[in-house]
Design goal:
The chain has about 100 residues and is mostly helical. The chain is built from seven helices and no strands. Bound molecules: iron/sulfur cluster (SF4) (2 copies).
């Protein structure tokens, strides 16, 4: 059955604000992510928003730029409000967007 095109997640303040990636164990030990989080307030004031400055919403933007994340840890996307809103469980990939790329 064909799905509606409802699985493409916009990269926007609303989805960034709901995204759980900044608290995900996969990113917890990353110095690169820590630096992005430290600059996040400033990054969110830029227009247009720059995906490479935001350590999240990988379901919309694709793989993480930070290379020191640990994808052996557990992805928490299943608990995210964005995941539910866009029914990402019905699309692929359905987790680890930081490693596997954007939801299609
Ligand atoms: S996409 Fe999943 S595994 Fe990757 S940082 Fe976000 S919550 Fe964690
Ligand atoms: S589904 Fe995962 S990647 Fe997408 S906004 Fe939620 S926590 Fe972030």
């Amino acid at each position: 059955m064909a799905h509606e095109s409802g699985h493409r997640v916009p990269f926007a303040l609303e989805t960034i604000g709901k995204c759980l990636c900044p608290t995900c164990p996969v990113q917890g030990g990353s110095q690169c992510v820590a630096e992005l989080k430290a600059g996040l307030d400033e990054a969110l004031r830029s227009n247009p928003l720059k995906p490479e400055k935001v350590p999240g919403v990988y379901c919309g933007t694709g793989k993480a730029d930070c290379t020191d994340i640990d994808t052996n840890q557990v992805c928490i996307c299943g608990d995210c409000a964005v995941f539910a809103q866009f029914r990402l469980g019905d699309a692929r990939p359905s987790s680890y967007y930081c490693r596997a790329g954007a939801s299609q």
